[in-house]
Each structure stands twice: as C-alpha cells, then as structure tokens.
Design a protein that fits this description.
The protein is mostly helical. Among the domains are: 64-128, Dna Ligase, domain 1 (2-Layer Sandwich); 137-233, no CATH class; 342-374. Helices cover 52% and strands 7% of the residues. It contains 14 helices and six strands. A two-stranded antiparallel sheet has the order 1-2. A two-stranded antiparallel ribbon has the order 3-4. It has a two-stranded antiparallel sheet with strand order 5-6. Strand 5 and strand 6 form a beta hairpin. Helix 10 packs across helix 13. The protein is elongated, with a radius of gyration of 35 Å.
C-alpha cells in the first residue's frame, strides 16, 4: 500500500474518532441536562411534599384530639402517636424536622391537641406540657367567687344561661360522671345532704382559653375542674399521709380565700383556724354566716350569727360541710403550709388589715381600737 493511501486511512480514522468524541460529548451533555432536570424536578416535588407534610392537617378545625404521651417516649414514638391520631401527615418527616430544629425533652402526659396546630405548635406544646393555640376567647374566674357568681360569669362570656349551668353542675348524673373522670379529686363528700352545691369550690379560679365560639356546659365545667386538679394534685400525697381529703383542703382554703387579703394573712389565719380546731372551739368566721344567709352584706349583725345553717361556724364547730367559694392557689398553699402561732383570734380593720390576738382580752382591746372606736 502506498504512503499516500496510509496517510489517508489514518486521516479518515482521526476524523471518525473526532466525530465519535463529539457524539459522546453530546450524549454526556444531554444526559447531564436530563439528570439536572430530574434532580430539579425531583427536588421541587420533594420540597412540595415535605412542605405539605409540615402543614396543619385541618387549618380551620376547632376540634381537639386526646393524645397520651407515655413517660420515657422518644421522638420516634411521639411522631408515630401523632400520625396515628391524625395530627401530622408523616411521622418520619415530623421526626426529622424536630431533629433539624434540635427539639428534645418532651413532657409525658395527656394532651388535647388540635388538627389545626402546626408542627412548631405541637413541638412547643409537647416540650412545655401546654397547648399553644390562639383561643377564640378567654374567660377569667376571680378567686373567692361562689358557684352562683361563676355561673353569671359563664353566662356573660358564653351562650350558657346561669340556670342551665347550675342545673348541670348540681345534677346527680354530672357528679357521677365527674367522679368517674376525677376519682382522686371528687369524692362522695360532695354528696353530703347539707351541701348547697356539690361543686362549690371545685371550679378553680383562673383565666381560661377556649377554642370554640360556643363551648358546651360540659366543656366549661371540665375545664375549670381541670384547673383544680392541676393545683391540687401536687398535694395529694401529703393529704393522704395526714389523713385529709381534697374536700377538706378546698373547704379550709375557701375560708381563707374569703377572710384574707395577703399571702401572709392566709398562713396566719390558717394557724388561727388550726388552733381553734385543736381546742374544739368554733371557727366563728363571718363569711360562713353570709354563705348561710345566701346574700352579701357589708356587715354581719348579731342576729345573723344565730342563723340555723350547717355552714354557720358560729353555731357549729369544725369546718362547714363544704367550700363556701372557689379558693385560689395561695389559699390552698396556706392550708398545706400554715404559720405556727399561738393566735386564737383576729379581726380586720376598716382598711382590710388583719390584727391577731392570743387571748380574748387582747382581741377585745383590738376590737375597741379598730372597730368600736371608728
């Protein structure tokens, strides 16, 4: 073969190789483009899926779902429980979302969670033991109110008439149902025939959020009793150890709530009542007379003190048959941790300040100074 022909063959091969390289480059280029498109499209749909999985299940829902988080539950268990309850769309995504945000230290307990809650709201609730949602409205029950006064507050904030509220809380069926739900809080002591309202003192005073425009009477009542449960539960062991009941605690605390104006007074008045009870003396506290009369008066008369009623602690020794109002946390704590004094008497001057005495003679002198001399 001639040299010229060999060169031509080599040239043709080189040309063919160049064409093959171009083809390969084109193929690689288009494969790369395809891969980029696949990744981009996949990323877009993955982003949308994850974003959708982190949105509330039902943004407009007003219903709540009871969720039990056992002690020692990890993120895997919690995520699975939330998915099973229909509160999140994907347990794995929720779990990774929590990990990315370094969320941990979740609180065990029973929660009333809503399908309208976002993952952040759910995580915040599970970390603090509280439910974070924007309430439709709030209702404040001040300390020291009676059932009748609470019923008026409820009527003013909801569409529940006062009469309907009182009828509901006084019914035997309601008490039986509540005892089944709160056996450690509501005992048969509330069924004492001398008690005016079984749940007097059991509707805890606080500001409560409500997430429905028209909550039922059952919802309102159970919400307030949950407040009592939360504030009384820490003392259950101490009460049992001392042979006392929740009913005794709330009854005692209700007297302090109506008598005292300051925390120190509550503890000191508790000591006065304890001293009187130990000596078998009647408590002789005016608020029980007013409760016996069923009316408010600025001043209790001598005739009022003679009213024949189980609640009147001038006529009956010991505590009244039940609470006379809704005691707050300070009064409950004062019963559990009273002062230790030798006082047996006290009176309030016109400014509301209480003055204490160890003997009846001292008490009479204080009365002459702060009451009779005014």
């Amino acid at each position: 073969m001639a040299k010229g022909s060999k060169k031509e063959v080599m040239f043709e091969r080189m040309q063919e190789q160049k064409k093959e390289v171009k083809v390969v480059r084109k193929i690689v280029f288009w494969i790369a483009i395809a891969l980029i498109l696949i990744v981009a499209i996949g990323g877009f749909f993955t982003y949308r899926y994850i974003k959708g999985a982190l949105e509330p299940m039902e943004a407009d829902s007003e219903k709540t779902v009871a969720v039990e988080i056992p002690i020692g539950s990890g993120l895997d268990t919690i995520s699975q429980v939330l998915e099973e309850k229909g509160l999140i769309k994907n347990a794995k995504i929720f779990k990774y979302y929590a990990k990315v945000n370094n969320e941990a230290d979740f609180q065990a307990g029973t929660y009333e969670l809503s399908k309208a809650m976002t993952p952040n709201e759910l995580l915040k609730s599970l970390k603090t033991g509280k439910v974070y949602r924007t309430p439709v409205f709030t209702m404040t029950i001040p300390e020291g109110l009676t059932v009748d006064q609470i019923a008026e507050r409820v009527e003013a904030k909801t569409k529940i008439p006062k009469e309907e509220f009182i009828t509901y809380i006084d019914s035997d069926e309601t008490i039986a149902n509540l005892q089944a739900v709160y056996p450690e809080i509501i005992s048969d002591e509330v069924k004492n025939e001398n008690i005016r309202h079984p749940l007097e003192g059991y509707l805890f005073p606080a500001t409560y959020p409500f997430y429905e425009e028209e909550p039922t009477v059952q919802t309102v009542v159970e919400t307030l009793i949950e407040g009592t449960k939360a504030n009384v539960t820490p003392y259950l062991a101490a009460l049992e150890e001392n042979g006392k009941s929740v009913h005794w605690l709330l009854t005692f605390a209700s007297l302090l709530e109506r008598e005292a104006t300051a925390q120190a007074d509550r503890q000191t008045i508790a000591s006065v009542f304890n001293n009187r009870l130990e000596e078998g003396m009647p408590l002789q506290t005016d608020p029980t007379v007013l409760y016996s009369l069923g009316e408010h008066k600025d001043k209790v008369s001598l005739k009022d003190l003679e009213v024949k009623n189980a609640y009147n602690t001038y006529q009956n020794k010991g505590l009244p048959p039940g609470p006379i109002a809704a005691p707050g946390a300070a009064s409950i704590e004062a019963v559990i941790d009273p002062s230790h004094t030798k006082y047996f008497y006290f009176l309030a001057d016109e400014t509301g300040k209480n003055h204490f005495a160890k003997t009846y003679d001292e008490h009479l002198k204080l009365k002459a100074q702060y009451i009779d001399g005014k």
